Amino acid sequence: MPSTVSNEYTLKYPWHLVAQAVFRKYPSSHTPHVLNVETAQQKLVGGRLHSRRIQVLSDPYLPAWMLSMAGSAFGFSVEDSVVDRAVSTLSQQTRNLSYSNFLSLNESVTYTPHPENPAWTLFKQNSVVEVHLWGLGTVESFVAGRLVQNAQKGRAAIEDACRAVAAQDET
Length: 171
Description:
Helix 1 (15-22) packs across helix 3 (137-170). It is built from three helices and seven strands, in the order βαββαββββα. Helix content is 29%, strand content 43%.
């Protein structure tokens, strides 16, 4: 049975600034597990910016039992983003490319203006982890736990990126 991790918080920055910061989030000292992010494709379709980025990830703290299954502490994921300025929405779908023969990780993220304060941005995240091999529920629990930890690190990284973009806008 899949494990789900959901997260929601408010960024006290306007949506247009957060939308810029999202693409400047990495590299970050808060998220050392994200080694590199490369834009593989970008195109405008119907006024929306569609981007595909490849992430190179590492987990040096992967338990030995999981490392033996994975074969490596390095992995790749693909992130598809759509920025729609007309309705002030940025949505991202990320899925793992590595280890997909035994593990699926699918993450959905949205950034929209906060309904109570349009000068702020509402972040919503939903991640689903599913192991495809019977009897490996421990792996799901481990990955779900890491998702919670990484979400906290990701929040710190996006806050830093927002501060950097805001400072740049002031100059």
